[in-house]
Write a structure and sequence with these properties.
It is built from eight helices and no strands. With 125 residues, the protein is an all-alpha fold. The chain has a domain of 78 residues.
Length: 125
């Protein structure tokens, strides 16, 4: 499901093979884009490395959210947005998250599942 949602408009030349490395490196280095920034500035990402990081972050955010709330509520969010609700209104109604809360919970999940030492890097994020 995350593949379908995150890669619906995937540009050619960007590949899944670097996601695990680029996401964990960006998380560790404090350069992982916030979900707010992704939501509001999606078209500002240029260059293969930045686009790869943006798509990778979006992919893992969708994967996290689908695991947390399930596929049906996630699809309902997409349907709501298609029917005139804002993404944030639907996210709150269907998942109980605002973007900042989702971002923090998502990054906690990445730390827990990325094999990155939280103690050595948490302060820079």
């Amino acid at each position: 499901m995350a593949n379908v949602v995150a890669f619906a408009n995937f540009p050619s030349g960007v590949g899944l093979y670097q996601f695990d490395t680029s996401i964990s490196n960006a998380l560790r280095d404090g350069t992982l884009p916030s979900l707010r920034f992704l939501h509001e500035s999606w078209t500002s990402f240029t260059g293969l490395q930045a686009v790869n990081l943006a798509y990778g972050t979006a992919y893992y955010a969708v994967l996290f959210l689908a695991g947390r709330i399930g596929g049906i509520p996630l699809m309902q969010i997409l349907s709501d947005v298609d029917s005139a609700l804002t993404f944030e209104q639907s996210l709150d109604a269907r998942a109980g998250f605002n973007l900042e809360t989702l971002d923090g919970t998502f990054k906690e999940w990445l730390w827990a599942n990325g094999g990155i030492s939280r103690a050595s890097s948490w302060a820079i994020c």
